[in-house]
Amino acid sequence: MGAVSENGVGSRIKALREAMDLSLRDLAERSGVSAPMLSQVERGETSPTLQIATRIAAGLDLRLSQLLRLDEDGAVTVVRAAERRQGPDDIAGHSYEILTPPVPGQRAEVSRHTLAPGAATGGPGDPPRHEPGSRETALVERGKVVLHCDGQRHELLDGDCVTFDADLNHHFENPGPEEAVLLAVLSAGLRRS
After folding, report:
1. Among the four 59, 80, 94, 150, which has the fewest Cβ within 10 Å?
2. Percent of the chain at pLDDT exceeding 90
3. Does residue 3 lie within any of the structural domains?
4. DSSP-assigned letters across all residues of 79-121
């Protein structure tokens, strides 16, 4: 079986693996390709055979064609509801899922957050979790949410949308008696000075 021409596939594999927060060992377990082989492919020291590239793609939850074409214009990636990446297990009434695919070079991430009554996405003392210059836009899908950002409090109801500098200290909380759901779009490094 022939080898896949390099053409950046190793760097794409590494970027995808890191975007999915997987170690080389994690991807080795998911794909059945050894960690040393994965490391060589990522560094461009070897070109994977089609069989190995297919296994690596499967370990990244992609088809081979998606792995080999991710950098082409016009590519469409659909993330089905059942394929969403889940955030860490429910943390004090806050759960979330990432709706966008782990594509290298992607400058925005869409996530859906569910807050139980009284729950928050973080606390007042938590450091900012987003890189300098990042912006966030959040749309309240259901319920009442309060955004605490840089020492200010903003009440948001069903359908309200807010945009703010996401590198500032911030968190959302649900002060209401019902579950609240919000969609968030995080854009990296787009703030104008």
Report:
1. 80
2. 41
3. no
4. --GGGPEE-SS-BTTEEEEE-S---TT--EEEEEEEE-TT-BS
